[in-house]
Design goal:
By secondary structure, this protein is mainly α. The chain is built from 26 helices and two strands. A hairpin with a 6-residue loop joins strand 1 and strand 2.
Length: 693
Amino acid sequence: MPALPLDELQVSETDPTTGKLHSFPALHPIRTAERFFVLYRTPPKANIPALVEEFLERAQFIAQDLDWLLALPHDKFWCQDNFITPSVFGEILYNNFLFDIPKILDLCVLFGKGNTALLNKMIENIFMQQPSYYSDLEETVPTVLQVFNNILGECGLQEEGASCEPQRLEEKIRVTPSEMPLQELKDIVLYLCDTCTTLWAFLDVFPPASQIFQKHSFLSRLAAFYELMVPELESAIKKGKFEDRSLQMAMWRRLSHSRRKMMEISHIIINQTCLQPILERSNENIHTFVEAFLEIFTTLLQERRFIKDYDEMFPVDEDISLLQQASSAIDETRTAYILKGVESAWDGAVRHKTSVSKRIELRTSPDGAAAQLTSNGPQPPSYSLQDDDHCPGASAARPSSFLTGVELDSLVTQVKDLLPDLGEGFVLACLEEYNCNVEQVINNLLEDRLSPALQKLDRDMPRQVKSEPSSLLASRANVFQDDEFDVFSRDSIDTSRVWKGRRRAEDSKQFLNDRSVVAEQRERYQQYSVIVEEVPIEEGTGQMFKDDYEDEYDDTYDGNQVGANDADSDDELISRRPFTIPQVLRTRGQVEQDDRQEDEEDEPEEEGVKPDNFVQDPALLRERAEARRMTFLARKGFRHDSSSAVVGTSRGQGQSKDTVQERRKKEANKSARGNHNRRSMADRKRNKGMIPS
């Protein structure tokens, strides 16, 4: 028997008064349980114990309510084991206000980041089961447009014909943004940022709503608001007198974020109402959507600032090129007119279009902006649409430039699990194009709706391997650099030429008796023993060195005996040192002859002792020092500590009375000089030459 939905299921309950069984529908109001739920409140900002305790108690009650709710049986609380008829489900949602347009907008802006696919499925199911939400959305769009009009009215920039009510004569003239108080300006900027972020989050999660927005000419109204409001707010923030520079920068970033979101809202509407249907339908009703695209941009050309900023983020010429490829019957005159109008909007401005991979990347530059702000006065720098900070609450995917290698590998794996035939390089290009949004990448791949830039890429393109930086060992230099023993540049070396200690199979006697190296060097050193005193001059050459007298020669000092009165011997100056053959190269006879000569030179000559020695006898110096010390002590009346009485006789023979008395006196007075004056005495000995320095 097939399971019945909850709206058709009957349950039996016993009447507590009569005890009889009664059948009730499972979703009958009589089965509702009465319970008062505690409302949630945000935690207190101030760290006051009483307020913190109140918040914790409230949170405990909320947890108890949730536990009770989850413990209900399945027929009183919906769960996945049972289902409800779709039509009945839609009625329950709509009649009990479980969802409405404001709640849906809040869900998108609060939980859209990272949950786009889940929210899209939920909202699509809500609108599918209850079409009444479409009518509610149509009634909401004029309210959104009225928000823009209210902002313009607060700033004294009301559009012509936007308000049907005449202005009262006694009504106060509104001031412009540059003249209003700082707090009011801040409130307007924040209000505009919240409004734009909420609309973008809703359209990003549920793009089919773009059709309803465009029914009310939302793009033209938004462009007109952008043209009037943005320049005034920019001028007010630049020229405002801010005591806190951080507040000025925060307001500027909020305004830049609002500008960006208005551009993205416009792109979503244009893509959903014109471009996407052209790509999905090959030949059916293409002309209708092409005409809608040309009509939209023909209307927007008069808003020059808006069209310039839109073209900066989403180039119009690429969209027109796509239309030309899809339809051959496109009006070339109108497309040329639109392109010329876009070009004229850039007059007097530096044109810098962003690449495909950078259009949806949020770039922040608060440090550089702050530096320019402090150096150039109160006016902040002129930001482009890419120079805004990410506003909290916007459901945007994380930019690929901030992802690490592991996170990118995880995203690539998610795509390849579903589409294993694609190359990793192609998957990375798709992730970069769609800002690492895996759901959007997979959806566009399955529906073959990739951008023209990705269509040209090879789907089997491999991933480019990044070159690793050279390791420390590869760049290290050593003593064996680029030789046969450099293990860092060679895979193998000749190990037979490397050994530790004595070489294998080598006799020490054989090594010592090997005189081959000596024989090779003997002839070289023998040439040094040939000394030529006079160089022979051949006849007819070198005459200038023979008898000629040179007048320019300076003979001023020729008569002076330079060095004649020096103490050095003249032999040391004029005599040549005889050449000495190295001992290694001498023959046996030469070695014996040299030894005899050395013995003869070592014999003492009968000469008197030199009066001055370079190093005196230490014993003699000690004797002299001891004599001087004894003289000094005798002059002062001290007795010598090392007298014979202190020494005494040998141990075991007993000591005399004088010896005992002298030893006792020495023991009592030994600290007077025992550990003192060491440095001065050492310096004294060193000065006397007793200690070599």
